[in-house]
Design a protein that fits this description.
Blueprint lengths: L10 H14 L4 E5 L12 E7 L6 E7 L6 H13 L10 E7 L3 H6 L25 H10 L7 H17 L1 H9 L18 H14 L4 E14 L2 E5 L6 H7 L4 E2 L16 H7 L4 E10 L3 H17 L5 H14 L4 H24 L1
Parallel strand pairs: 3-4, 3-5, 5-8, 6-7
Antiparallel strand pairs: 1-2, 2-4, 6-8
Bound molecules: zinc ion.
Amino acid sequence: MSIPQYFSATYSEARQKFLKACEKRGLVVENNLNPNAKGREGEELYMDVARLGPEDASKVLFVSSGTHGGEGFCGSGIQVALLEQNYLESLPEDVAVVFIHAINPYGFSHVRRVNEDNIDLNRNFRDFSEPLPDNGAYQEVHDMIVPADWDGPAREAAEKAIEAYIQKNGMPKYQAAVSGGQYIKPNGIFYGGSKPAWSNETLRAVTAKHAGNAAHVALLDIHTGLGPYGYGELIYVGDLDGIDRAMEWYDGEVTSHETGTSSSAPVTGTMNKGITESVPNATNTCVAIEYGTLELMEVLNSLRADNWLYAYGDVDSELGQKIKKQVRDAFYCDADDWKEMVWKRGIETIEKAIKGLAKS
Ligand SMILES: [Zn+2]
């Protein structure tokens, strides 16, 4: 089969492909049912987990998809292609690779970035007993981000206000205010929640189970929506002690917002914390691979539109369906050249991670 055929049009299709590919490889799949939500077609929602390599490996690589729901079309395609094409048939000694399919299956099925509670999981991994960060910057932009209507005067006023904000403060400041993570507006975007979400707790349990005795844990969490079309930026997400090691593994191509080299704004509560806190004694090398789709403003506007739709609109209306298409396009370029690009970069990166882990 050609690479594009391993990608899917819906969560259900993606899940079936993943399960079938695992079965072909003789892998046992753990199905973690999300008891709190159903899919767009009324289907059950699962975070599925499969492992290649020895049970007692001391070096474990997690390759995960769908932390941001609909971004899972990309990650799932890479996972399925890898399994179907018989990659990683022989792993280095003492190395295991764990595939996590659809960390946020609700968002994958409904083609949303967020989970069933409008939570951005990649802002949800924090200690909620500690004081929450100051969200003054988000407070300033919230009303522009979520206007009361999407095709009337409130929207028009919001667009003008955003334009003025960017003119005054610059695009990076707007991106940081919007996407940094906020804990004050449950109906806003990039909302981090008020307690650990189901996906957060489940991911921690999966990590503890699969890497409980590991000495070194690596993560490649697959995302889309930032950067140039089809290019996979490797964004370092661990604590900065490990960045030199990641640079070595990935041929110096790792970026970080701490060092000002990433297309991502500084963010808080990212999911690598769930991995490292579940195996506190292991060395960790965590990277998000972020594939570009559309221009940044188009992506941010699609997320605003989607947020408005679930706060005030009707998904089944004409406007609702138009917005859903806009969101899907921001997450996933349904084009063969894009799929070939993300696959090639994906498998090369996974192979580098395994090599790096083996040598560590
Ligand atoms: Zn993402």
